Queue: 2 jobs
Job 1
Amino acid sequence: MVRTRAASGWEADGWSVGVIDQSQLPHRFATIRLTTLEDAARAIATMQVRGAPLIGATAAYGVCLALRADASDEALDRAVAKLMATRPTAINLKWALDEMVGAVRNRPRDDRLAAAYRRAAEICDQDVAINQAIGGHGARLIAAIAAKKPSAQPVQVLTHCNAGWLATVDFGTALAPIYVAHDRGCCSMSGSTRRGRATRAPL
């Protein structure tokens, strides 16, 4: 989960990036503040941030942090190469970096930083909207399946990889339908971040 003032108003300085240090979980909840390109690259490479959407969002803000120091084409290219090398096979990472380059490449240097922060915030907002839509669509399926089962029989949903809210800017991917179904009162939740047990609520 990434929080910045540009995206949601959480970071008081208006430019740095706050993330949950997932390498400390589950034994300790800790956050870290990213202030440089190197911080963002390290957070991705060492798995302080995990989950495809979150990696992409972190990389987007990594470009912003790089441009704070140097808004030249050369610095942009170095930042993209450094961030891409942290997880070369990550699809969201490459997509986010391509989006950031497209947002700033042909702009005057004085305009690049604002444009970068704007696009990074849009990437974060888009991630939340997509995951909420996944949740809404999936929750309807869970409710439909549950309606066909005896009331004591749960609908079990198994997800693989990091699919909860920690993997995203917020809300989760494959677990989003379980979150939404739970919030709507049509199921209960149990299990780990990779397994959801959806049980029909008593009518």
Note: The chain has two domains: 2-126, 130-198.
Job 2
Amino acid sequence: MHDNADSNSNPRRRWPLFMLAAVVVAVVLAIVWVSAEARRVKQFQRFDYSPSAATNDPLAEFRYALTGGDAAAGRNIFFNKPEASCGRCHRVGGEGGDNGPALDGIASRESREFLLESLVLPNAQITKGYESVGVALKSGMGISGVLREETETDLVIHTPDDGAVMVSKTNILRRVAGVSPMPADFATLISKDDLRDLMAFLASLTTNAPAQGP
């Protein structure tokens, strides 16, 4: 009777088996999660996912145009496709306009990346002598075009309609520096294939006397 009383007064506490199993499963799951998270962190460390890495290259979405393409098709786009209208401002092989710089031999002087940047970011680097300008005159008229020459007293502005116009600075009420005459969204006005072909044409202009197209 004494032994039974002792055992009843100080019973051993035992965890039910299902509770022990639940604790073990929770611990195992926690270990698995920590291991998976560690692997994920290591995987991310292999790459640079920082915002600067994702946005630091303004040409990223257009780099496909740096290779491939059909130069002959690009020439046709340059001179004949209304959406591009490159030939209205640029001259190649004696053909085209003169509101922009002549492009003969451009590929021997500049890299493909420069050519691509000129197409998709025309305001990034404007060739000296082809900056655009707008002036409001005291007479109420306005003139805008490419600034071809500037002296202490005058501006020479090449306008699309009237050609070179000399403006006396004494007649200028307000002057505004313009942007490139080339549309800032040029790369979206033509298809991806057209942009690649146009790049191929520009990259073929390695001499000062390119062959004429058909």
Note: The helical segments are 2-9, 17-45, 51-55, 71-80, 106-109, 112-120, 186-189, 192-203.
